[in-house]
Design brief:
Number of helices: 8
Structural class: alpha/beta
Number of strands: 7
Helix content: 25-40%
Distance between the termini: 48 Å
Shape: globular
Length: 221
């Protein structure tokens, strides 16, 4: 092996190591280097064999709001398995830890629960995904708040036109079911799109649990 071939092979090996270090670990929300995965930007998720097949039939987007990181972890697995793009919804202003204290009747989230007009005032840093018209399947994820979808998701649903899209909802909670949360969001969308109730992930999370649920879905792609 001459010097030029040695340097070329060595460079390819180093690039593979660098790319491998950027992968997300299973449902931890952390990269293999220990840094938290933000999920904030719309970007292509890594494609698995099932994701590649799904992408061939049309583009998929996973949109989610996550207050504590649990919904984000599920969203990342869905995006990876479906070969989908992913978009995190961020309220403006965002919620602080104190805002999310539902045991405090004066906290932001408690006041919004008691006064629906306050929920109408919630704005998102970004409400319309890039190239929205290109997606024919949209997963929408959220934590369950008082039996319904966390209301930052409302702003996303009301802003976008779901005509011609199949929509699947999913949620996370300590023990609450999905309930009517998906149906209420479909109503907010004005009946546009084909909405399918998904599931609410409770208790401990695992890749396998999310993958099994994805396999059970009846989607056109």
């Amino acid at each position: 092996m001459n010097r030029r071939e040695f340097l070329r092979i060595g460079g390819m090996s180093m690039m593979a190591l660098m790319l491998g270090g950027c992968g997300l670990s299973s449902l931890t929300g952390e990269s293999s280097s220990g840094q938290a995965g933000s999920g904030a930007a719309v970007g292509a998720a890594a494609s698995s064999s099932s994701g590649t097949a799904a992408a061939a039939g049309g583009k998929t987007l996973v949109v989610y709001y996550s207050a504590t990181g649990r919904t984000e972890r599920v969203a990342e697995v869905i995006a990876r398995e479906r070969g989908a793009d992913i978009m995190k919804l961020v309220p403006s202003p965002d919620y602080t830890e104190a805002d999310l204290d539902y045991n405090d009747t004066s906290s932001r989230v408690s006041r919004e629960h008691d006064d629906a007009s306050l929920r109408e005032k919630i704005r998102l840093q970004k409400a319309v995904p890039d190239n929205w018209v290109a997606y024919d399947t949209v997963f929408i994820g959220y934590p369950i708040w008082w039996g319904i979808a966390a209301w930052p998701v409302d702003a996303f649903v009301k802003t976008n036109d779901f005509t011609g899209k199949q929509v699947v909802t999913f949620a996370t909670a300590a023990s609450s079911p999905l309930g009517n949360s998906g149906k209420l969001l479909a109503e907010m969308a004005g009946g546009k799109g084909s909405w399918q109730d998904g599931t609410c992930f409770t208790g401990s999370l695992s890749d396998a649990k999310v993958k099994d649920w994805l396999k059970s879905l009846k989607l056109s792609n």
